[in-house]
Write a structure and sequence with these properties.
The chain has 363 residues and is of the alpha/beta class. The two termini are 31 Å apart. The strands form 3 sheets. It has a 9-stranded mixed sheet with strand order 11-10-9-8-12-6-13-16-15. A 5-stranded mixed sheet has the order 2-1-3-4-5. Strands 7-14 form a two-stranded antiparallel sheet. The protein folds into 2 domains: 2-134, Cytidine Deaminase, domain 2 (3-Layer(aba) Sandwich), CATH 3.40.140; 144-361, Dihydrofolate Reductase, subunit A (3-Layer(aba) Sandwich). The protein contains 12 helices and 16 strands. α3 (82-88) runs parallel beside α4 (108-115). The longest helix is centred in the first third of the chain and has 14 residues, at 48-61. The chain binds ligand AOF and zinc ion.
Length: 363
């Protein structure tokens, strides 16, 4: 199952709106030989199980045990359901990490396997599997993607100097890790302030992973993103979405659309911006399961206040900028520490002189 989870991880960021699944076929009767491995393919199809069955071939798949990181699907897609395919291939046993909460599945895959005489067990490394597909699970259960806030700060939590300069706070190793994070997400979301200040490209520029660039989204209420910005200029190569409020300047909107940008228009919330909850739900409706927020402090604060930040990827560099620098999150309006959004640390990873700490929200 650990191997299946490692295969599943390959799909993160590339398979939305689907979950990233891994499958390993093992012949216990042949001294545990692995006869097929599969993972969800880019775009979400083919599914992990059909890949593993195809690679194993008829002969080897028969009598195998299938280790699958998510319950096999049971609905008709472009191909027959995986539950049926596994049973038809003569798989003898299925070990499943966690049930698929998709209303089209929800136990039906397991039931079909069992009805076909396959011995099924569930729950092996279930927690790991649930965390791996937290994006898909949150989307199914709450209608919005998993939201991870990524920040690169000094020891005193500053993301830029008093002049707004932020390149670079962390070193090369940390930035390479940040690019890998991009590849593992369906989309990157930034605020218009950051888009204007940094003119970022938001692509994954790790060698070999260039094709893994996520959708780039700018929260830009009043359509201020310049048509000659790097994001707009490359919108035909890498999808670029802009979230604005209705009633903006039609000429600017059309100019963006003409250049390949997807313009999403919301009713204005309080403060003349789209409401954060609406924004998250809209990204869910569009199929996204994993969104990485890369700043700035205003957008971070808005999402934190709305309790929409599920995870933190916090890069910290051994520098100090001081109180006149820009804080990682703008005002949160917290009066007592007990009211502050609270997180539990999940990992600490040294990255050259810097460190990456990851967290999950608990409060
Ligand atoms: C599997 N193996 O590798 C994946 C599964 O749109 P479709 O027809 O491809 O189906 C998507 C649904 O299938 C998705 O919502 C989830 O329930 C399941 N994903 N299932 O057996 C896989 N990616
Ligand atoms: Zn399937």
């Amino acid at each position: 199952m650990r191997a299946a989870l490692a295969l599943a991880r390959r799909g993160l960021g590339a398979v939305w709106p689907n979950p990233a699944v891994g499958c390993v076929l093992v012949r216990e009767d042949r001294r545990g030989r692995v006869v097929g491995r599969g993972w969800t393919q880019p775009g979400g199809r083919p599914h992990a199980e059909s890949e593993a069955l195809r690679r194993a071939g008829h002969e080897m798949a028969r009598n195998a045990t299938a280790y699958v990181s998510l319950e096999p699907c049971d609905h008709l897609g472009e191909t027959p359901p995986c539950s049926q395919a596994l049973a038809a291939a003569g798989v003898r046993r299925a070990v499943i990490a966690v049930e698929d909460p998709d209303p089209r599945v929800r136990g039906r895959g397991i039931a079909r396997l069992a009805a076909a005489g396959v011995a099924v067990s569930t729950g092996l490394l279930g927690d790991e599997a649930s965390r791996l597909n937290a994006g898909f699970f949150i989307k199914i259960r709450r209608g919005r993607p998993l939201i991870t806030l990524k920040v690169a700060t000094t020891l005193d939590g500053r993301i830029a100097t008093r002049t707004g300069a932020s390149q670079w706070i962390t070193g090369e190793a940390a930035r390479a890790l940040a690019h890998r994070l991009r590849a593992e997400h369906d989309a990157i979301l930034i605020g218009i302030g950051t888009a204007l200040a940094d003119a970022p490209r938001l692509t994954c520029r790790l060698s070999g992973l260039e094709q893994r660039s996520p959708v780039r989204i700018v929260a830009d209420s009043r359509l201020r993103l310049p048509v000659d910005s790097p994001l707009v200029e490359t919108a035909r190569q890498t999808p670029t979405w802009v979230i604005a409020v209705k009633g903006g300047e039609a000429g600017k909107r059309d100019a963006l659309i003409e250049r390949g940008v997807t313009v999403i228009e919301a009713d204005p919330g309080p403060a003349d911006r789209p409401d954060a909850g609406w924004m998250a739900a809209e990204l869910g409706r569009r199929g996204l399961t994993r969104v990485l927020v890369e700043g700035g402090g205003e957008l971070a604060a808005e999402l934190l206040r709305a309790r929409l930040v599920d995870r933190l990827a916090w890069f910290r560099a051994p520098r100090l900028i001081g109180g006149d620098g820009v804080p990682a999150a703008a005002a949160l309006g917290v009066d007592a520490p007990a009211q502050a959004p609270e997180f539990a640390r999940t990992a600490v990873l040294p990255a050259g002189p810097d460190v990456l700490e990851t967290y999950e929200r608990i409060g």
